[in-house]
């Protein structure tokens, strides 16, 4: 994965004049102490005694940043020190895991087609809104790049609850190559206190993990309201008298990074400073908007008038330099003030033991977007083109993993047997399963018909083996179809005939007194049969009047 390095800041250098001045005044200050005193560094920087790349960058980003310099500055701020070649290689590997069919060893890579909008994870953001791409001015190719990046992010992080990342990704896509956008977004998600205004992960703990998001959002809104009350007290009282929810403004503004609220070029200037200085910028800009348009808001006599006046006021902020100057003129307005207000509200919510932070782990039960990595044996080379799973649409693969038992839904898959690789023999299938060290976790059987019209299969709670006359498996077993339409058929508790077979056949389901198997394979794994069975109450999986069909590909996957 792309390395997530800390932001590089050039070490401070003290000039000879500065050292002489310190000696003449009798000041004893070690070099480490000098670098560690922010106010003194700013003072020396203002008189050009101390050179500091970070302070130079901050002044430049706050005051003016040419469109032509934006890509270089963003790369320095958020992409990290890895070379573009390394980042591209890492991104290509992720895309191969998600979409399949990419030869990661090739010198040039063809990007996969972007998934449909409905299949793209939105992270709780505004991605699905009709005019979202138009607000950013995205071309069709840029919009496709955004969808690929968001799918890759959801796959590697397991996150699904970060609304600002959609708009951040769209903004980055207009200036940076797609692999660098992915690297930047990974870093933004890792720096949760930077992307989403919230408490430090060590500062406050709350009692129930399922209430974390709600408590965090509520404390955030109240923190913004507190800061507005402290700096625009008259306006805060007036809005409260009109029944306006001052706190709710922060949700709309922060979730979109002011896109759709401010003119787009102004929102980009806010994004410039946000990448450098973090979430406090969002608070500063929000208060600045209210402060700059306080007279017109005080003249409103209803909540609807306030909403209309505020919308017009924000849309009129074409002078980004003036807005940012107001925002950064606010005193005592750093992370400490925001954190203190959030802490107070969280403590009022009876906080307890769960850390107030998003989970970045991919192993998150119930995740609504998880695409497994498909592992093949090293001597098989790149991902085989014959594999039905790699050829599936992204939504079908995601749906298959949602059908699995909870303990498997965030597991990757490893190929145990393929008739194309290991030969057409049920004996070999059993042998490969017996040698699999993870057979106890269950196995996935996937069959593609010779005519390519259907992909069907089954999940077994145990690795496949001869049953010796006694069916095995438990109620977690199920049958499924992936093509032409994804559908699962779970155990209906009529009987417990889940998996059974010998060297002449392998079957799942049964119990109707005839040869009615939910899914059946012959000894050469060349012919399959599917009929309605009592165990799973399934229709013929192949979807044709002819129950028996020829097999092109038969695979068994284990979970790792």
How does the SSE layout of this entry go?
Elements: E1 13-14, H1 16-24, H2 31-36, H3 38-46, E2 50-51, H4 53-63, H5 67-79, H6 84-99, H7 132-136, H8 140-157, H9 164-173, H10 178-190, H11 192-195, E3 205-206, H12 212-231, H13 233-241, H14 248-255, H15 264-277, H16 280-292, H17 294-298, H18 303-315, H19 320-328, H20 335-348, E4 354-355, E5 374-375, H21 388-391, H22 394-403, E6 413-418, H23 419-422, H24 426-434, E7 443-449, E8 455-460, E9 478-483, E10 487-490, E11 499-502, E12 505-508, E13 519-522, E14 527-529, E15 548-559
Parallel strand pairs: 5-6
Antiparallel strand pairs: 1-2, 3-4, 6-15, 7-8, 7-15, 8-9, 9-10, 11-12, 12-13, 13-14, 14-15
What would your notes on this structure say?
There is one protein chain. The chain has 560 residues and is α+β, with helices and mostly antiparallel strands. The protein has helices spanning 16-24, 31-36, 38-46, 53-63, 67-79, 84-99, 132-136, 140-157, 164-173, 178-190, 192-195, 212-231, 233-241, 248-255, 264-277, 280-292, 294-298, 303-315, 320-328, 335-348, 388-391, 394-403, 419-422, 426-434, and strands at residues 13-14, 50-51, 205-206, 354-355, 374-375, 413-418, 443-449, 455-460, 478-483, 487-490, 499-502, 505-508, 519-522, 527-529, 548-559. Helix content is 44%, strand content 12%. It is built from 24 helices and 15 strands. The chain is elongated. Strands 5, 6, 7, 8, 9, 10, 11, 12, 13, 14 and 15 form an eleven-stranded mixed β-sheet that branches. The model is unreliable at 1-52, 197-211, 351-368 and 379-383 (pLDDT under 50). Strand 13 (519-522) and strand 14 form a beta hairpin.
């Amino acid at each position: 994965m792309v390395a997530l390095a800390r932001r590089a800041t050039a070490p401070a250098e003290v000039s000879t004049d500065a050292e002489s001045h310190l000696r003449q005044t009798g000041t004893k200050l070690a070099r480490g102490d000098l670098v560690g005193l922010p106010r003194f560094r700013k003072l020396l920087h203002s008189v050009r005694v101390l050179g500091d790349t970070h302070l130079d960058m901050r002044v430049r980003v706050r005051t003016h940043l040419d469109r032509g310099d934006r890509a270089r500055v963003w790369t320095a701020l958020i992409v990290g020190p890895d070379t573009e070649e390394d980042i591209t290689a890492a991104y290509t590997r992720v895309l191969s895991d998600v979409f399949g069919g990419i030869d990661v060893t090739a010198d040039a890579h063809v990007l996969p087609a972007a998934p449909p909008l409905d299949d793209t994870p939105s992270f709780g953001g505004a991605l699905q809104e009709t005019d979202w791409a138009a607000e950013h001015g995205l071309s069709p190719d840029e919009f496709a790049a955004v969808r690929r990046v968001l799918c890759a992010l959801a796959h590697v992080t397991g996150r699904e609850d970060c609304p600002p990342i959609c708009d951040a990704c769209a903004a980055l896509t207009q200036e940076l190559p797609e692999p660098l956008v992915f690297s930047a977004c990974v870093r933004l998600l890792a720096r949760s206190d930077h992307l989403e205004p919230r408490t430090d992960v060590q500062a406050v703990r709350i009692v129930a993990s399922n209430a974390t998001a709600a408590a965090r959002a509520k404390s955030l809104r109240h923190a913004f309201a507190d800061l507005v009350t402290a700096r625009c007290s008259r306006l805060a009282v007036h809005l409260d008298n009109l029944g306006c929810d001052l706190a709710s403004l922060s949700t709309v503004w922060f979730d979109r990074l002011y896109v759709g609220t401010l003119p787009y070029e102004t929102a980009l200037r806010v994004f410039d400073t946000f990448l450098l200085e973090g979430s406090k910028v969002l608070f500063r800009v929000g208060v600045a908007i209210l402060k700059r348009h306080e007279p017109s808001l005080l003249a409103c006599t209803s909540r609807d008038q306030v909403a209309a006046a505020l919308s017009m006021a924000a849309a009129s902020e074409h002078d980004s330099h003036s807005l940012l100057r107001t925002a950064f003129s606010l005193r005592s307005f750093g992370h400490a003030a925001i954190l203190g207000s959030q802490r107070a509200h969280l403590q009022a919510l009876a906080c307890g033991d769960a850390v107030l932070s998003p989970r970045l782990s991919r192993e998150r039960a119930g995740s609504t977007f998880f695409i497994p990595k498909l592992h093949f044996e090293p001597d098989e080379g790149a991902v085989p083109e014959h594999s039905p799973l790699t050829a599936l649409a992204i939504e079908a693969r995601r749906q298959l993993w949602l059908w699995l038992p909870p303990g498997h839904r965030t597991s990757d898959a490893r190929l145990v047997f393929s008739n194309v690789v290991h030969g057409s023999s049920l004996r070999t299938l059993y042998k490969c399963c017996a040698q699999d060290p993870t057979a106890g976790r269950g196995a996935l059987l996937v069959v593609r018909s010779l005519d390519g019209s259907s992909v069907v299969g089954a999940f077994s709670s145990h690795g496949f083996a001869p049953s010796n006359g006694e069916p095995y498996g438990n109620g977690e077993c199920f049958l499924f179809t992936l093509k032409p339409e994804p559908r699962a058929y779970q155990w209906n508790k009529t009987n417990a005939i889940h998996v059974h077979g010998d060297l002449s056949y392998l079957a799942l389901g049964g119990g109707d007194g005839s040869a009615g198997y939910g899914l059946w394979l012959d000894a050469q794994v060349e012919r399959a049969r599917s009929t309605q069975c009592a165990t799973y109450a399934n229709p013929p999986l192949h979807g044709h009047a002819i129950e028996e069909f020829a097999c092109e590909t038969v695979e068994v996957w284990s979970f790792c």
